[in-house]
Amino acid sequence: xxxxxxxxxxxxxxxxxxxxxxxxxxxxxxxxxxxxxxxxxxxxxxxxxxxxxxxxxxxxxxxxxxxxxxxxxxxxxxxxxxxxxxxxxxxxxxxxxxxxxxxxxxxxxxxxxxxxxxxxxxxxxxxxxxxxxxxxxxxxxxxxxxxxxxxxxxxxxxxxxxxxxxxxxxxxxxxxxxxxxxxxxxxxxxxxxxxxxxxxxxxxxxxxxxxxxxxxxxxxxxxxxxxxxxxxxxxxxxxxxxxxxxxxxxxxxxxxxxxxxxxxxxxxxxxxxxxxxxxxxxxxxxxxxxxxxxxxxxxxxxxxxxxxxxxx
Length: 312
Hints:
The chain is mainly α. The chain is 72% helix and 0% strand. The relative contact order is 0.22.
């Protein structure tokens, strides 16, 4: 591939990841417009997965010119379990219990988890300063989970734990999917992953989701559903797979750093839309905890100590 073409792909990958970060930042608030009421998280998950699956087949089905080798179906199944099923279940159920600000902060742990999994699955070494960064970031995440909740926020800690485990699941997906992206068309891989995820999760929730009275949904509710299916699921997965195709998993996950900032900005701009003003959840204690998480992740992402990088 010519150097200029390679640079173009890299720039496009960064722009795609930036677009995904903006969509995710707004999603923390928009999804709360309909969840947990009038739509329960599990029913919303079915809508999200099947809606995105249909969009992937409509837009990228023609790119499937070859079926995966038999040896790759096991990895595809693991990608569906980690990147679609577990990821969606824990994120939506966690978000229904915690605040958008908490959820966005907890997701900043993702690059640190990607580093650990890259070492375990891709055999990349972890240096002493990276291990120190992992410990610092873990301490910051624990501070957020153990923070004293305000009245009416008793479920925050459980929701925070769900979102943290969701972050682990998403990080596992980012590492597992790399060999498939290098072997097949990236959008074809995403289509297969969503198809497997939809087929597996449907029997689980089709009869277990709470009944939804669709006639009570307002135009704002339907707009929120459309945003989550088209924006947060279809576009963000497509954008992330463009990033994974041309950039390392650690670089892709690093864009999560933007999500707490963007979620905070959107919370402030849209405070009048909600019965609860989520902008008040961003206290100085939580800002400090988030800074500790980001500092730990930054240290763990460096290949050398900062002063070693400047001496050449």
